[in-house]
From TrEMBL:
Protein name in UniProt: 2-oxoacid:acceptor oxidoreductase subunit alpha
Transmembrane segments: none
GO biological process: response to oxidative stress
Pyruvate/ketoisovalerate oxidoreductase catalytic domain ranges (all copies): 9-186
CDD domains: TPP_PYR_PFOR_IOR-alpha_like (cd07034)
Keywords carried by this UniProt record: Oxidoreductase
Presence of keyword Membrane: no
Database matches in SUPFAM superfamilies: Pyruvate-ferredoxin oxidoreductase, PFOR, domain III, Thiamin diphosphate-binding fold (THDP-binding), TK C-terminal domain-like
The keyword Oxidoreductase is annotated on this UniProt entry: yes
A molecular function (GO) term: oxidoreductase activity, acting on the aldehyde or oxo group of donors
Domain (Pyruvate flavodoxin/ferredoxin oxidoreductase pyrimidine binding): residue spans on this chain: 236-450
Length: 602
């Protein structure tokens, strides 16, 4: 189903539609077939206008077995279209998911437009001439379904045929069978009279440029490469595979051609230690992981705080705690990112708002890490990581250079008034320490995890020095606010009294829900945070402008608690921890109720 969805997405993108996707698959490598936990799904929203979410109420559901039908039926609105493969609707398979009778026969689906087809039989009959095994023949049903949907939405099969020719070039029987199945599905839609409608979705208006389809993880990888390139530094990724962050490692491992070095470590600790060592040696060290890996990396991140070495940590959040639900999304690592280290160890924290925004956020993470000599945590999540959008490929010349500013000569004098290098002598504006690549003649210096003496970097246990260094490191991070743009508020009417504040991937549902609320004649304002530590300088003033501030999050109110403590504003937490993006339809209705209540009270 992931392949089928990806192919339809590629065709939609090629036609110029705006797209947003939500792949959803089991955590197990071989999930129990025919069970509810084993259902793999791919949701796609495509349109002839700007869209910001993959939607939450699909118009068409294609179900390949009873479990897929049951797992997704509740999301389908009444009068929605169901295309269902009847091949597996046996008594045994129905009982496996708790159905005592066949929903295709007992009236369960009477509110929907149902097309019950034996897709498996249609596909296997189509590919008989190719001599496939029964198992391989039945697998072509996804291509048959793709062909049928392509006809239904007036799509050409040329791109899919080219893809199959490339993918199975070494297996001509598999290649030809899948092509035949896709063509047969398209022909079935053309010749059958059971479908009342056929749809055509025009291209969406987009800025001129060259576009490609990217996932959040791919955009993150490209952003890291761009950041290293703009700093003229070698990119080094030290990582350990973990869902849903592994694709960053996969993508960067393909780019040896431009000097990217990837190291698949034996564990999370080794991955981040290697990355920090690479940064110490003059490369841009990056490590990618998810929440459980951040726990293991925290000691080395603290070492990066103490030594004040650039390091980018990408946390692709997933549902926890512990192993949790590895393939499901969540936003519950915010407090961990901001506070999850021993001692006073502040680091900048930034979050991407969409799959394509992962590129810009990754570049920003590189810029802050290098300029301020600090570890930076970039937050993404499983929804952004696996989802796809059309991405307008940027011109690298439009991205501002990043100046590493390495020390090349002594910057002070020793007790004997001789020129020497002071590794903890600081830039008066940024408070970033002087950084010399090891081996630079005359700039030998001491480094390590024990507290540093100001200036010299020598080991120090002096109480006053420790107090000064702790406060200086904190002031350095706080000072990053100078580089952070003010938070912008979207309030088209200028009359809204309710503000919806989001961070990370809630941007899509909040933006879409606000559009619907405004179409209903109500006023609502929205704002979004990329920078979470430090936060924009004008945020407090913005929050106090509104009578009510609502913060939707996929956690139990982590940003809400930070906002309350920092700004003393009584914000309202809107929490959802279902392993899925926040439902825009549910959020729309709840916002309408909140606004109406506030209007009555006023």
């Amino acid at each position: 189903m992931q392949l089928t969805g990806d192919r339809f997405t590629a065709e939609a993108a090629g036609l110029g539609n705006d797209i947003a996707t939500l792949p959803n698959f089991p955590a197990e490598i071989r999930a129990p077939q025919g069970t509810l936990p084993g259902v793999s799904s791919f949701q796609l929203h495509f349109a002839d206008f700007d869209i910001v979410t993959p939607g939450d109420r699909p118009d068409v559901l294609v179900a390949m077995n009873p479990a897929a039908l049951k797992a997704n039926l509740a999301d389908l609105p009444r009068d929605g279209v169901i295309i269902v493969d009847t091949a597996d609707f046996t008594k045994r398979n129905l009982s496996k998911i708790g159905w005592d009778s066949n929903p295709l026969e007992d009236g369960t689906l009477e509110s929907y437009k149902v097309h019950a087809l034996n897709l498996t039989h249609l596909a296997t009959e189509t590919v008989k001439p190719f001599g496939l095994t029964r198992k391989d023949a039945s697998r072509t049903k996804n291509m048959f379904a793709l062909g049928l949907l392509s006809w239904m939405y007036s799509r050409s099969l040329e791109g899919t045929i080219s893809f199959l020719q490339r993918k199975f070039a070494g297996k001509p029987d598999i290649r030809d069978a899948n092509i035949a199945a896709a063509q047969a599905g398209h022909a079935y839609g053309e010749t059958t009279e059971s479908f009342e409608f056929r749809y055509e979705v025009a291209p969406a208006p987009m800025k001129p440029g060259r576009y490609r389809q990217v996932s959040g993880n791919m955009a993150t990888a490209y952003g890291l490469m761009a950041g290293a390139h703009k700093a003229d530094m070698q990119l080094f990724l030290g990582s350990y595979p973990i869902t849903p962050a592994s694709d960053i490692l996969h993508e960067l491992s393909k780019r040896k051609d431009i000097g990217v070095v990837t190291f698949q470590a034996e564990d999370e600790i080794a991955g981040v230690a290697a990355a920090l060592g690479a940064s110490y040696g003059g490369a841009l060290g990056v490590t990618s992981t998810s929440g459980p890996g951040i726990l293991l990396k925290s000691e080395t991140i603290s070492l990066g705080v103490m030594t004040e070495i650039p390091l980018v940590i990408v946390n692709v959040q997933r549902a926890g705690p512990s192993t949790g639900m590895p393939t499901k999304t969540e936003q519950a690592d915010l407090l961990q990112a901001i506070h999850g280290r021993n001692g006073e160890a502040p680091v900048p924290v930034i979050a991407a708002k969409s799959a394509i925004d992962c590129f810009d956020t990754a570049v920003e993470a590189c810029r802050i890490a290098i300029k301020y000599r600090t570890p930076v945590i970039m937050l993404s999540d499983g929804y952004l990581a696996n989802g796809s959008e059309p991405w307008r490929i940027p011109n690298l010349d439009d991205i501002a250079p990043i100046e590493p500013g390495y020390a090349t000569e002594p910057n002070g004098t020793d007790a004997k008034d001789k020129p020497t290098f002071l590794p903890y002598d600081r830039d008066p504006e940024t408070l970033a320490r002087a950084f010399a690549i090891p081996g630079t003649p005359g700039l030998e210096h001491r480094i390590g995890g024990i507290e540093k003496a100001a200036g010299t970097g020598n080991v120090s246990y002096d109480p006053d020095n420790h107090d000064a260094m702790v406060r200086t490191r904190a002031a350095k991070i706080d000072g990053i606010v100078r580089d952070i743009p003010d938070v912008e508020v979207s309030d088209p009417s200028g009359r809204a009294r309710v503000l919806v504040l989001g961070w990370g991937s809630t941007w899509g549902p909040i933006t879409a829900a606000a559009r619907r609320v405004r179409l209903s004649g109500r006023d609502v304002a929205t704002a979004h945070l990329r920078h979470l530590n430090p936060m924009p300088a004008n945020l407090g003033e913005v929050l106090r402008r509104y009578d009510r501030v609502i913060i939707p999050e996929m956690n139990l109110g982590q940003l809400a608690s930070l906002i309350r403590s920092r700004y003393l504003v009584d914000v309202h937490s809107y929490s959802r921890v279902r392993g899925l993006p926040i439902s825009l339809s549910e959020l729309e209705q709840d916002l309408i109720a909140e606004i109406d209540q506030h209007t009555q009270e006023a």
